[in-house]
Write a structure and sequence with these properties.
Number of domains: 4
Family: Belongs to the MoeA family.
Low-confidence stretches: 1-10, 410-414
Keywords: Magnesium, Metal-binding, Molybdenum, Molybdenum cofactor biosynthesis, Transferase
EC number: 2.10.1.1
Protein name: Molybdopterin molybdenumtransferase
Enzyme class: transferase
Helix content: 10-25%
Radius of gyration: 30 Å
CATH architecture of the largest domain: 3-Layer(aba) Sandwich
Length: 414
Amino acid sequence: MSAADPVAAAAQPVDWPQARARVHAAGLAAAPPAVAVPLAEADGQTLAEPLTTLTDLPAFPTSSVDGWAVHGAPPWRIVGQALAGSVPTPLTEDGTTVEIATGAMVPVGADGVLRVEESTRTEDGRVTGALRPAPEWRAPGEEARAGEQLLPAGVPVDPGLIGLAASCGYDSLPVRRAPRAALLVFGDELLTSGRPGAGRVRDALGPAVPAWLRRYGCTVDPADVTGPVADTLPAHVAALRAALDRADLVCTTGGTMHGPVDHLHPALAEVGAEYVVNTVAVRPGFPMMVARVVGTDGRPRFVAGLPGNPQSAIVALVSLVAPLLAGLQGRPLPTLPQAVLAEPIRGRGNYTHLALVRIDSTRGTAHPVQHVGSAMLRGLAQADGFAVIPPGRQGEPGERVAVVPLPLIFGERP
């Protein structure tokens, strides 16, 4: 739907689950092509192709202990060493052994590896001892066979994946790079420093939203945060065009309604945007939106309009921006975990209610927090996520509900 008629577009709010699916599909369709990056640069990107082994893993039999690789019956005469990083001479003569280090290649002809702590030496310097029934080496392909898929495309690249790829012989990985995001803060009433007063309030979203975006896998430079943008249509259009020139995603705060100084929708019309989602049947935060703008290079960019009330803005972030970014990174639509409600949570009529909760991970229970008005951030600062209460329902104690987690970097709150 064209942005030329924003009021008509906003007439029918989209169901919350449908809105998530719609923006994810739009992001997936616009995901950039894969690029190969060195392993050292891959952390935080998204795997663009399945990770398969280039060789058996391990590629050759390796000793799992320090000891003696032996051939034939004891006692064994020492005929050399097998050290990591070299190919040992085969053991062909009965009653011979080579000293072997953990991780070293087991020589051809070895019948077993005797642990050094379980060996003894005879008076003439030979080695003796009893082999354990189970082999003390890692067999080729024990972890994976050549060509076996280890991880699917769409998973985030983390240090564990990087190490696994290196062990398989990769020097680089095909990835989808992290999207670049920008933020435009709207509102003449906002202060960027000092204490609020005299009708003006501190901008809480300008400092906070970039941090949330980084946790969702974006890059956001300080220069990509602009505002407060003057409450005029020309200023909004100029700011949008400048941000779209450098970013894959432009988030805006405020101006998502149709008040006398809400210029976002007319500005979107000026830049030729088309709505993906415009208003969502969710409380708080229903006047949220995502629009697509195709650049002169033919590549789509996105604008995510977050409401000006701080908690509503974060609801928009977890509802629309997180699925959109998952799509842009080639990741699947996030599956929501579940928890059991410890206390009742009221419904919001025909709207999905996203209610701030703390999660007791030991019991798997969700506990509503206080101070959860749309303009409040105290409850958000104490919460782990939002419990999802479907339309026409109340959340009852003992009921299992979906939870939209907040992307915390340090795990569980104290």
